[in-house]
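We modelled the chain as a single entity of 179 amino acids. Its sequence is:
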Amino acid sequence: MVVFLYICKTKIMSKNLEKMAVEIQTFKTYFESKHRDIEVDIRIIKVKERDRVTLEELQELTLSTMYDINPEFSNIKNLQYRTRLRDFMMYLQSFCKIASDLGYGSSQISRFLGRTHASIINNTKAANNYIYSKWAHFILIYDTIKFKTNQNVGIIIENSTRQNISESANDVVRTKEKN
């Protein structure tokens, strides 16, 4: 019987790699000596994962959405633009809410936008209020930016050669036991 275990680790440091290799070999030796009919194959797959979208990328996604939904705003080149038009403010509020959800602090967002951190908190609360009240135009803006953000972030695998087993691990073990 053969059991495959895969360990996916993001951003493995070279110092930790040696330590992990020793721990894996210790586990493998112990496990195979305890269960003599099982061979263990453990692989470390290096994965580069982007933690989150940068504020610059989020601004570009927000502007792209703004140009698609409200082409009359095509003269606006960044979110530092000063206006109190409700439609523009909805894009700014969506930006603040999504940036906050991504883990950026109000001070980081305010420095990026050239505004006070209190205005960022206010914009985030306004976005939450729009979401709570299910304001259709805001939801369209917010969901579109959120969708583009999720499309923009992903996992980049350095070595993508691996098995694609779509059945559960229990089914594999049961099948191997029968043979």
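As a brief sanity check on the tokenised model: The longest strand covers residues 39-49. Residues 1-12, 154-170 have pLDDT under 50 and may be disordered.
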